[in-house]
Amino acid sequence: MSGNLPVSLRPRPSRAVPAIICGLVLLAAGVVLVWAAVARLTMGVWPPFFTAVSDWLATLNWNSPGSWTAGVVLTVIGLVLLLAALVPGKFHALPLRLDPIREVSGDSRAVMSRRAVARLAAATCEHIDGVSTASATASDKEVHVSVHTPLHDTADLQHWVTDGVRSRLQASGLDPVPNITVSIRPGR
Question: Are residues 174 and 106 in the same domain?
Fold first, then answer.
């Protein structure tokens, strides 16, 4: 069912850190270029580091293997950055089943993030007798619950946790409900 969700319900992963880094690098390059242009206009010559770079580039053999390698590496880096900006991220949410509402016309859809599913599963476990702490992780097809208990006999507890989490996820409207696995760490 996740393939039928509209694009607006498929959020892209946050790319804030790479965007900030690229923005700061471009800002620094812009500041340097403006400073060099102002220096050129006021003093009549380019700053020494501009002429040093152009003099060094003029001495290079552009057909050498080192130049070709550097060109290929920079091209690959540019393509990777371009693809990172254009390719959407993986879908990280599970679809919810919504009951039709008379007041709402049209097609309504909702999703729950994998983090929310994991938190719901862990919170459900902590209300089950015999569970001291619980944590959970969720993927598109599976929820794994890790439970700590002071009990030594954990066979019944595993069934209680599995059934409790499954019924809570069904009640929340997940469609389909992911497979639930439970690992229990008994107390000492």
Answer: yes
